[in-house]
Amino acid sequence: MTNSLRIWAVLGLLTLSWACAQRHSSDGTQQASLLPVIDTTGSDLDAAQAQEFIAAHPNAVILDVRTPDEFRAGHIRQATNINLYDSHFANQLATLDRGKTYVVHCAAGLPNGRSRKAIALMDSLGFKQTHHLNGGFSAWQQAGQPVVKQP
């Protein structure tokens, strides 16, 4: 299967998962939700673990999947920004080195958030070493980890 066909297949599956996802309200009833339920194979790291992991793996790529405006407002040092909402996101991911190790994060690092969607796509594209920053950039900041801001 060619890369672009594989990308379209994954995007189709993600779209279907959005349509079929359900959530539970506080009273225990199920409600329709537009958030997909995604399970990934990447390991989860809290902010302190991520900082230690990045220090121990200087060649790891920190992949920030937030918008460019969010990225400019503050990001992890040496992070690469690829906006999940960009129409070329899947194609941009496909150009990355699948042999490298990635720490992926978004703003909140929720179970069905942008970073989880990115990791699911990366897994389908053959990336073998993906790690998720639980709590995302918000948790990173709250833990007092270093942040770079662009003017």
Automatic annotation (TrEMBL):
Key words, A-Z: Signal
SMART domains: RHOD
SUPFAM superfamilies (UniProt xref): Rhodanese/Cell cycle control phosphatase
Leader sequence segment: 1-21
Record-linked Pfam families: Rhodanese
Coiled coil: none
Tree of life domain: Bacteria
Ranges of residues in domain Rhodanese: 56-149
Alphabetized Gene3D superfamilies for the sequence: Rhodanese-like domain
Record carries keyword Signal: yes
Stored PANTHER family: FAD-DEPENDENT OXIDOREDUCTASE (PTHR43031), PYRIDINE NUCLEOTIDE-DISULPHIDE OXIDOREDUCTASE (PTHR43031:SF1)
Protein name: Rhodanese-like domain-containing protein
Species assigned in the record: Fibrella aquatilis
